[in-house]
Amino acid sequence: MAIPQSFIQELLNRVDVVDVVGRYVQLKKGGANFMGLCPFHGEKSPSFSVSPTKQFYHCFGCGANGNAIGFLMEHAGMNFVEAVKDLAQQVGLQVPEDDVSPQDRERAAQQRQKQATLTDVLERAAKVYQKDLKDSPRAVTYLKGRGLSGQIAKTFGLGYAPEGWRHLAGVFPDYSEPLLVESGLVIEHEDEKGQDGEAKRYDRFRDRIMFPIRNVKGECIGFGGRVLDKGEPKYLNSPETPVFSKGRELYGLFEARTAIRQHGYALVTEGYMDVVALAQLGFANAVATLGTACTPDHVHKLFRFTDAVVFSFDGDAAGRRAARKALDAALPLATDTRSVKFLFLPPEHDPDSYIREHGADAFANFVKQAVPLSKFLVDAASADCDLGSAEGRARLSSQARPLWSALPEGALKRQLLAELAQQIGIGTPDLQQLWQRDDRAPRRPREERQPTASQNTQTPTDGGAAHQASYSPAPAPQNPPGAWSAPAESRGRGSWTGGNGRNNWRKGPPPPPRMLGRQIASKSRTDRAVGLLLANAAAWDSLSADDHAMLAHLPAPHGPVFAWLEAQLHEHGPQPWAALREGLRGEPFEAYVCAEVEQATIAADSASELEELAGVMDLLRRDELMRQSQALSLLAATDPQARERLREINERIKALNSSSAV
Q1: What CA–CA distance (Å, rounded) separates 83 from 19?
Q2: For residue 233, is the peptide bond before it cis, meaning its omega torsion is within 30 degrees of 0?
Q3: Tens digits of per-residue pLDDT, 247-263?
Q4: What is the pLDDT of residue 452?
Q5: Per-residue pLDDT at 568
Q6: Nearest to 4 by CA among 84, 77, 87, 103
Q7: CA-based, 20 to 30 A from 563: which of 275, 484, 587, 654?
Q8: What is the pTM of this model?
Q9: Three-state DSSP class for 48?
Q10: Residue 627 has what pLDDT?
Q11: Which string of DSSP letters, residue by residue, matches 178-215?
Q12: Angle between helical axes of 545-552 and 558-572 (0-180°, round to 10)
């Protein structure tokens, strides 16, 4: 779904960033702006400023900044489209969906209405369960016995579902309402009829402590219920519904967002009570899977908030099996800039009991000593292998291959290849050749796949006549004063392309001329980064959150290009250049980006492009640090905080220079 830039501008003109940020951060008036504690890093004195005139937020401590859409993406973990829709709903705007048929648009609207209605039903039930908890001494005593305070129960919205088969019948006027079944609150047996002839219904949750499950926007989408005494099942979850999927949601993520940033990592545990108890004991950065194995969706969602994840499991066989599933889910996302570790508690402990017996500092140190993904991968591959025999080492090779192959390309993958080769007892090149021999498919080199000059003159320059014939883009938006626009030689009122017997008028600037075989030096390393990242869009996820912010806030044309790329990835996931090229149509930087991508891919393959991108990013990071160093130098003489920040930045510059020298 492509959202017109004009709509984004109108939306940002209507929303108030103070109201948006104020939903998540307590703000106080301070001069012309509003101030509060930054939600992106831990601090005791407010350095987070929100400007109602500029409609912009900025933290003077950590540098976080952006508009209302960016805040929802960074703080609430929404993707671009979710953030736009959330804001549009607040101000009563309808997000345009011109590329969707009227039937699909109507179905989407009905689905959104259904989801909103279901969350309203669940929110109402959550409030009733919270009230019922206060009225149940037995449930309160149970929670106090687990060491939970009233404040932590309030933070997580804990409640109690009383005994009785139809308690909710006294809450909702119409107990036969289908939404009660669709939301998972009520169970209906079609094959059993009541005295009224209707299908028999009863409450799903009875005599259980209730844990509301919230999405990243804070909406109640389901429940987990725990028995107070003995009973089966010990935990009972809401079923899959239009608003709730166990494979995608994490318990406690909404409550843990700020703490995850403050601690620097997310701690994934195995149960609701672990999350709540850890928050009570100072580790509010904990989340839990919902009675299911960890999935790639879980890991991807966590990496929206942090670059470091620690999985906590029991040290028994079941815990090891769960850890292995988490390893499989994390491997494809374990880039060189991310940290994944595995924490195995002693068999007699869960996180709650360990902290109560040994203290919070001991648990924090225990977390620091968690097993890195690299070591756990080798351990998992070595399971049941007798490394003293050739057969055992061969089995290690067979078991290690799918795990190693799942890793994204990078330094970690190369190091692990060498380590595994040493364990198996053969050379690194031999192991790589062995693993690639069976699945190697013959591929033509990139230069053989490039069209020749004669072929090129007979082909439409912007991707093919067939594509152009069916494409009718909207007029390119006008650039505001001072904004970057396409070079004069590439601008015009329009261009004609023809093919398959059809004439087509293309609005906006024409695509750049093809320059295959004629490499031209980029004007700057930032231009080169544009070409390399657009040609290898999946590499965006390998960069850190700081890199994303640095690139997106560069001056035009570079910053807008990277912001556009990030929005595309949030909306559609990694795409090949051909798909991104279609998405660029009508953008003011279309011609510029096409030229840079073409230059980046002349006489090169993906491996060399990624290697060059790594070097370019190091240079850009150093440039940004040098800029910050110069700015802080003016303040360091009188401001101790600026002096300390300057020292840290200079150390990072020194480290970058040292690594470049190596």
Answers
A1: 14
A2: yes
A3: 889 999 999 988 888 88
A4: 39
A5: 78
A6: 84
A7: 654
A8: 0.58
A9: strand
A10: 81
A11: HHHHHTTSEEEEEEEE-TTSSEEEEES--SEEEEEEE-
A12: 130
Q: What share of the chain is helix, strand, coil (3-state, %, to 5)?
A: 50, 15, 35
pLDDT tens per residue, range 612-626? 888 888 888 888 888
Q: What DSSP character marks residue 542?
A: G
Q: What pLDDT does 476 receive?
A: 36
Percent of the chain with pLDDT over 70: 79
Report how far residue 181's alpha carbon sits from residue 175's, in angstroms, rounded to the nearest whole number.
10
Answer yes or no: are the C-beta atoms of 387 and 311 closer than 8 Å.
Answer: no
Residues 290, 250 contacting (CB under 8 angstroms): yes
Amino acid (1-letter code) at residue 34: F
Tokens of 471: 């494409």
Reported as a single tens digit per residue, the pLDDT across 281-305 is 999 999 999 888 899 989 988 988 8
Q: What is the largest CA-CA distance in the chain?
A: 85
Q: How far is CA 373 from the centre of its chain?
A: 20
Among candidates 364, 365, 159, which has minimal Cα distance to 282?
A: 364
Comparing CA positions, the residue from 343, 367, 221 lying closest to residue 281 is: 367
Q: Is 47 exposed, middle or buried (0-12, 13-18, 19+ CB in 10 A)?
A: middle
Residues 6+ apart with CB under 8 A from 23: none
